[in-house]
Amino acid sequence: MRTITIEGLRLLAMVGVLPHEFQGPQPVAITLSVDLPDAPTVPARDDMSQVLDYRDLRELAREEAERAHTHLLETLAGRIAERALALPGVAAARVRVAKPQVFADCDVVSVEVQVRREAKAP
Question: What does the alpha-carbon distance between residue 6 and residue 14 come to, in Å, rounded to a whole number?
Fold first, then answer.
């Protein structure tokens, strides 16, 4: 099995439900991991055609975060996770979306979601 992780992708996103959160984008950090259970430990060839390109993961997270205002971190994390799960070979995805500027006495507030592809019936 292979796991690919992108940690702390820093973006500006329109997210939140409070009046000031509709005024402009705010910083978020996204961590995205996908599990590829059928991926060999060593690819058959040392070539990008043999692996899931992590640039695709980064881009789909960026697209979701920047596409439109989202009210809830849960919604944003879930959308990213579902898109990641749809990629070839991905059996599970975990997404954490963190907002660092929510409370003065907290480093971050975050939401994490996990999705899995349903097992095939025998």
Answer: 21
Structural domain includes residue 121 = no
Please, what are the averages of pLDDT over each run of 10 residues along the chain (122 residues)?
96 95 96 96 92 96 96 98 97 97 94 90 66
71 half-sphere exposure, CB direction, 13 A CA radius: 1
Q: What is the DSSP letter of 4?
A: E
Count up the domains in the chain and report the number.
1
Structure tokens at 80: 């990213």
**CATH number, domain containing residue 47:** 3.30.1130.10
E strand intervals along 14-108: 26-36, 92-99
For residues 53-65, one letter each, b for 16 or more C-beta atoms within 10 angstroms of the residue's C-beta and e for the rest, the string is eeeebeebbeebb
Q: Is the full-model pTM beyond 0.90?
A: yes
